[in-house]
Design a protein that fits this description.
The protein is an all-alpha fold. Helix content is 60%, strand content 0%. The longest helix has 21 residues. The mean pLDDT is 91.
Length: 146
Amino acid sequence: MQTAISEVVRTLGIVDRDRRLTSPINLIALIEGGLPVSALERVSKLIAPSDASFKYRIVSRATLARRRKPGQERLQTDESDRLVRLARIWSFATDVWGGEDAARAFFFRPHPLLENRLPVDVVLASELGAELVNDILGRLKYGSAA
């Protein structure tokens, strides 16, 4: 049920030339150091290509404007962590659903096991929310009721 770290790194658009980032500890270090703003742009376009404001659900508009200043093009640790959480669940959803369009439909459709909340909202809300969505995806992939 786990998404490979290498798939999450690919989703983020981080170049991993020497395969160091395939280690969970190295990915944690990258989160702590702050992901590049370009990773936010990439993930936002993957998940919600027709919604230019989706990225502001992850990082506020004013904060993102500050992060785009030269020399400050990195997200803070909490923002990076939220983005990696979203990328991890997105990667698993594309695997389960067999493609981006079907994963997108799942992300943006109310789900009864989430009290009719959108999975994307639940993932963005907290790590516990991400685990709930991850569990639903695991049930779908491995054949139990979801």
